[in-house]
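Exercise 7. Given the encoded structure of a 405-residue chain, write a plausible sequence.
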């Protein structure tokens, strides 16, 4: 799977960039890099540094909203990064938690409405709290993070450089102690239902109908509940669940060609998954997985339990998928209609051809950096987020005539 790649710094471009951008601190980070794809060289330009960036929402007129896990929501427009947008809800930034995703309402052009997902601390914290830990999740050591918290989704209107009418419309229930597996990605269906990926919080709750952890959640755009969600059976079952048996999904998107819903999810040690989501289906976690627990404990493979819906693609070694978008442009001619997945540990963009209910990886672009998100620009170029404290926003364009013809 190794693809030769180049990531050379074009010094001339870097110096030019510094001159244009003045003495701002990110000038030293700017500059061009080149990457190799099957259809030609791709040019990447680092547009701005960001601290723990997590998600991009592309707005009309090529403005971007970008979250930083630390709690900042910023606009990127006309080549400039804004100061943090005011009135973002208080988030708990630690481990995998913080300010996570941002999506625009399908009618954003007229209603300016956006949705944020984030790790929300409970108002009342338990006395003498302890992280129960679990050796099966590896690095989640006891008392690593003893704040009681859960994923929450807020709706707000973007008004210049501030949010107004901020309203929490959905919450993980019940909240848990623990710093991992918040999920947090969101996508709107054509009929304005909001789908939310909710992780299992490293508590193996995905088959517990009394919690929405480890589920794909579906709500109306105002947070009310549709009447036709998954029927989980027990009286205490949650009514906001669309599908169950998920671990930590960090990408969700509708295929515009078929309107089918796709998610990917991080497996444990081995077994990252691309799943085709159907109402009421059970995707198996934690009963089955194509990977095993981090302490070496075995988990039965998907093939042993046909009652669970198995992944369409299973990756071992893992890619650590983060961010998912279907590319609709033509500028990268080989990617039109395909799903693009960011890769954290794989430090790549993973290209997946989706045909109806089938999918296969066709190419992996070696980026040499952890990719946290991928988003298509209005002009068919691609934005990616470099993950980490020294992260940033990079724009990718085909450099070769071959790649863009
Ligand atoms: Ca599964």
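Solution.
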């Amino acid at each position: 799977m190794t693809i030769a790649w180049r990531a050379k710094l074009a010094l001339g471009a870097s110096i030019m960039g510094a001159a244009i951008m003045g003495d701002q601190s990110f000038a030293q980070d700017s500059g061009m890099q080149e990457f190799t794809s099957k259809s030609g060289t791709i040019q990447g330009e680092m547009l701005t540094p960001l601290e723990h960036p997590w998600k991009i929402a592309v707005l009309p007129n090529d403005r971007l909203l970008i979250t930083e896990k630390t709690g900042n929501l910023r606009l990127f427009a006309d080549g400039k990064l804004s100061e943090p947008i005011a009135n973002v809800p208080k988030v708990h930034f630690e481990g995998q938690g913080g300010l996570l995703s941002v999506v625009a309402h399908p009618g954003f052009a007229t209603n300016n409405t956006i949705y944020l997902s984030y790790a929300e601390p409970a108002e009342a914290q338990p006395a003498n709290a302890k992280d129960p830990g679990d050796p099966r999740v590896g690095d989640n050591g006891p008392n690593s993070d003893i704040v009681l918290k859960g994923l929450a989704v807020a709706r707000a209107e973007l008004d210049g450089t501030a949010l107004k009418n901020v309203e929490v419309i959905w919450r993980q229930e019940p909240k848990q102690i623990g710093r991992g597996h918040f999920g947090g990605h969101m996508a709107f269906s054509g009929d304005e239902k909001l789908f939310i990926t909710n992780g299992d919080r490293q508590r193996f709750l995905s088959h517990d109908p009394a919690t929405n952890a480890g589920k794909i959640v579906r709500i109306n755009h105002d947070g009310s509940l549709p009447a036709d969600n998954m029927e989980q059976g027990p009286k205490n079952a949650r009514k906001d669940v669309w599908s169950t048996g998920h671990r930590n999904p960090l990408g969700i998107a509708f295929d515009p060609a078929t309107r089918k819903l796709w998610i990917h999810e991080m497996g444990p040690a081995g077994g990252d998954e691309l799943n085709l989501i159907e109402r009421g289906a059970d995707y198996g976690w934690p009963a089955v997985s194509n990977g095993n627990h981090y302490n070496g404990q075995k988990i039965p493979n998907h093939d042993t339990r046909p009652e669970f819906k198995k992944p369409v693609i299973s990756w071992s070694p893992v890619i650590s998928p983060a961010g998912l978008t279907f590319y609709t442009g033509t500028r990268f001619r080989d990617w039109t209609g395909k799903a693009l997945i960011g890769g954290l540990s794989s430090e790549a963009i993973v290209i997946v051809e989706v045909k109806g209910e089938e999918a296969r990886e066709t190419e992996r672009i070696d980026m040499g950096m952890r990719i946290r998100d991928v988003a298509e620009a209005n002009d068919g170029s691609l934005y990616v987020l470099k993950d980490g404290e020294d992260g940033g926003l990079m724009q990718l364009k085909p450099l070769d005539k071959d790649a863009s013809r």
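Remark. The domain at 52-248 is CATH 2.120.10.30 (Neuraminidase). Students should compare their own answers with the one above.
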